[in-house]
Amino acid sequence: MSNLTLLNTVRATALLTAACLLLITQQLSAAPRGDLLPVEPVRVIEGGDKLGLRHPSNVRMTSDNRILVLDGVSNRVVIYSYEGKFQGSFGRGGSADDELSYPLGMTLDAKDNVYIADSGNARVQIYSPDGKHLDQIKLPQSKKQKRPDPTDVAIDNQRQLLYVVDNENHQVLVYSLKEQKFIRTIGGMSHKQDGFRWPFSLYIDSAGTLYIVDVINTRIRTILPEEGFNFGYDIGGWGVEKGELFRPKGVAVNAKGQVFIADSYLGVIQMFDKTGKFQAVLSDGQGKVKRFTTPTRLYFDNNGLFYVVEMFANRISVYRIAS
After folding, report:
1. Edge-to-edge strands of the sheet including 171-176?
2. Which of 75, 82, 182, 228 suits a disulfide with 65, CB 3.0-4.6 Å?
3. Is the dihedral angle over the CA atoms 165, 175, 63, 282 positive or is it negative?
4. What is the pLDDT of residues 163-186, one digit of tens each?
5. DSSP state of 244
6. In this model, does residue 17 exceed pLDDT 70?
7. Is 289 helix (H, G, I), strand (E, B) or coil?
């Protein structure tokens, strides 16, 4: 392909993308007021030391109400008080047994031990709540597969299961939590109902249903552990209408079972009911669709506050959602 042809292809792709974004923006902006769900800003978590936050990728709250932020480019976990005051950090960059390399996903077990999807090192790292390195899980790789790329982790404490997204191989790995024993894989490269294309994020609701952000297939997939880890219903699908997705990246489920999905390119967050039916778009206090900067991960804390990881804005925005 000549440089001119390549340039024209890039330009055409950029124009098509811009047109799609404009159409989606128009659709969502025209949403009736009943389709808008207001959010009230509570606080913003950012910085705290000379490093600040550099492309944060995840957030979780411990049982004693400390906020942990996975600070991806700095290869560390930053600790904040519930009010957002910096309290310290742990982790460092590298490939040694206790180090991290571009970590992307994080979750906690029932004892507040921290499990991290250590993407650059193709493993899961485990730390104590105070930052002591405890263990690691190296991901399996067959001769036919690419080097594993873990982008997120999720724990089902009730069933004692650990889930790991292997983005590069388009699959989810299932482990027993206590023994860290590999159980099975779910998925594989497919645009059909039996797989994924570059899955990214995970979330587990109170019933144990696993939600998987299937990025390039532009949908949220559900896995039902009580039914042999079979696929359940899907949410979304590519399009420019309300209830459709352009580039989903984050998902979270609140105590009511409502599903919130972040579209990282468009910068909007939509809400769906438990069956996957579109309900609303998050809005500001002036009745306009709320815009976020690359919303990458979503989280509800123990008190019902809603956290949005705005990766390229280097901050975690915290909201109260109108009931």
Report:
1. 150-156, 161-166, 171-176, 182-187
2. 82
3. positive
4. 999 999 999 999 999 999 999 999
5. -
6. no
7. strand
